[in-house]
Design a protein that fits this description.
This is Iron complex transport system permease protein. With about 350 residues, this protein is mainly alpha-helical. It is about 80% helix and about 0% strand.
Length: about 350
């Protein structure tokens, strides 16, 4: 083990305790903030309900009018948004840790576009019900990831930038396919599909939230297990192999879990942009950790989603903006800042 690698290992080890404490505090604080935003959203809508009223409705002792506003309309949407954010944040943390690049995100490197393309085929060509095109979205995300991984890595394990560039190209090609599918559909179908493509929570219900919950219960622990190996891989491929990390299996596992997380989110709410890109980097800066953290990034993604949905519902009065429009507006500025920062760093 070289001196540089040894120093890196010591730094990672000594910083791990403080980072873990900051990460735990940040995760708990972020989830509490997300719940506060959900209560604020429910308390300021067309049928406002106080936090105590929300609790009574959840416990089955609420006023019938409040039950309709909370249990049938507001809370399914809020919970779905939170769960979609959890999935996107966790997916982004895995891909960014694997590529060791802040641009490594499922929506940037084409995974979301692949899920959206297959979902549109199911929606506009095969005329499937939501359950059918949701399954197709997961299949499309996995198929796109397989193509990007095969073309982007070329059998190497340290191919972060190449993977990202290949992913951006595949994503651009699939976006053109999505546009073609929209032009070949009827006005009604294209309007519904366009709203879904923008990333919307307006059709949320408890069944979608339930399916997404089950997926997260399975996928998040798997993501945390893979993240443990990714931290070792920060020391370099040779050191990771020497420490017993199966690089090929970890690489395939990381991308498969990340794509599955992103795909179930896309299947639920459409391709919501920039949450997977932004949440892990906010966590890195707040915890000053060496790599994105899965659970903290998931919590941050959930907070970004519920805040964006609150802004989308309240910013323009009676107009309900799709949540993806809000995340796209804010995330686009963030991406421009990030690219500028990367360019300056490389030009020094």
């Amino acid at each position: 083990m070289s001196t540089t690698v040894a120093k890196r290992a010591i730094q990672l080890g000594s910083a791990r305790g403080a980072v873990n404490r900051r990460t735990a505090v940040l995760t708990a604080g972020t989830l509490i903030a997300a719940i506060a935003v959900i209560l604020l959203t429910l308390g300021t809508g067309a049928l406002p309900v106080s936090p105590a009223g929300v609790v009574r409705c959840v416990l089955g002792a609420g006023d019938p009018a409040n039950d309709f506003a909370v249990m049938d309309i507001g809370l399914p949407r809020a919970v779905t948004g939170l769960l979609v954010g959890l999935a996107l944040g966790a997916a982004g943390s895995l891909v960014q840790a694997y590529t060791r690049n802040p641009l490594g995100s499922p929506d940037v490197i084409g995974f979301d576009a692949g899920a959206a393309t297959f979902a549109l085929i199911g929606l506009l060509v095969l005329h499937l019900q939501p359950a059918g095109y949701s399954v197709l979205a997961v299949v499309g995300g996995l198929a796109t990831a397989a193509v990007v991984f095969a073309l982007g890595t070329g059998g190497e394990h340290d191919a972060g930038y190449r993977l990202i560039l290949i992913g951006i190209g595949v994503g651009a090609a699939l976006a053109s396919v999505n546009g073609y599918l929209l032009t070949r559909s009827t006005n009604y179908e294209s309007q519904a599909a366009a709203r879904w493509l923008a990333g919307s929570l307006s059709n949320s219900d408890w069944s979608r939230a339930g399916i997404l919950s089950v997926a997260l219960v399975v996928l998040l622990p798997c993501a945390a297990a893979c993240a443990r190996h990714l931290r070792t891989m920060l020391l370099g491929a040779d050191v990771a192999v020497a420490l017993g990390v199966p690089l090929r299996r970890v690489s395939v596992g990381v991308l498969a879990i990340a794509v599955a997380l992103a795909a179930v989110a896309v299947a639920t709410a459409g391709p919501v942009s920039f949450v997977a890109l932004t949440a892990p980097q906010l966590v890195v800066r707040l915890t000053r950790g060496p790599a994105p953290q899965v659970f903290a990034s998931a919590a941050m993604g959930g907070l970004l989603m519920v805040v964006s949905d609150f802004v989308g519902q309240r910013a323009l009065g009676s107009i309900d903006l799709p949540v993806g429009v809000v995340t796209g507006a804010v995330g686009g500025v963030y991406l421009a800042w990030l690219l500028s920062r990367e360019w300056k760093a490389r030009s020094r």
